[in-house]
Amino acid sequence: MSGIIDFHTHAFPDKLAEKAIPVLEKEGDCKANLDGKISSLLSAMDRCSIEKSVICSIATKPSQFDSILSWSKEIASDRIIPFLSLHPADPQWEEHIEAIKLEGFKGIKMHPYYQEFDLDERRLFPIYEKIADEGLILLSHTGFDIAFPKDRKADPAKIINVLEAVPSLKLVASHLGAWDDWAEVERHMSGREVYMEISFSLELLNNADARRIITSHPEGYILFGSDSPWTEQCAAIKRLQGLGLGESLEKRILRDNALSLLG
Fold first, then answer.
1. Nearest 10 degrees: CA dihedral of 124, 127, 131, 132?
2. For 92-113, how does the pLDDT look when each residue is reduced to its tens digit (9 = 90+)?
C-alpha cells in the first residue's frame, strides 16, 4: 500500500501557531503533540508513512476568509491538501465558494461550535447547495466538542436532516460520525452512505464498540483522520490497526476511500 492519507489535521502560519496552540490547549484542557506548524506536521507525516494530510482551517469570523485563502495557496502541495473555511455569516459566501473552486481546492471546513450555528439550520441550506453544485467536499465538525458545553449543534439527527435536504452534498462527518455521541451515530447513521472520518474517537471508544460502528458502515464511507496536533498520527494509525478489521478494509480506510473522494 502506498502512503496513508490523513483526512483531518490542523496547522497554522508559524507566528500564529506560537500564540494559538497554548490558547487552544487551555480551552480544551488537551495537550498538543506538535507545535501547530506545517514543518512539524510534515516531519510527523514522514515518521508515520503518511503521504498526504488535509489541513482544516476554521474561520471564526467572516473577515478571515482572505487570509485563510492566501495562506492555503502558500502551503498547498502534493502532500498538503488545504480545506478552506467559510463562515456561515459571510455576506460573500457565494463568491467565496466559487473562489475556492476556481483556485483548485477540494473542500471546505466548518465548525458549528466555533462558528456558532446548528448544522441543520435552514439558512445554511443554500450554502450547502452551492458547495454541492461546485463539487466541493464539506468536512464538518460533528458531535460534541471538548472545549464547549454539550449543546446539540451537530448531532447525527442533524447530519441526516442536512443530507436529506441536500443529497448531493459530499459531507464528511468528523470524529466517527459525532464526537462523544456514538450511540446516536449507531441509531441514525449506521449503514447509511454517509462519510465519516475517525479522528479523536478511537482514543475514547473501546475496541469492540469502535469495531462494531466501523464494520456496520458501508466500507467506502470510512476515512482515516488523526486530528493532529491533538492526537499523534502514528498512535492513531496503530489504534485503527488494533481493531482487527482485516487488510482490505484497513487499506480502504487509510488510503483508498480518501483518494476516491478527493478525486
1. 70
2. 999 999 999 999 999 999 999 9
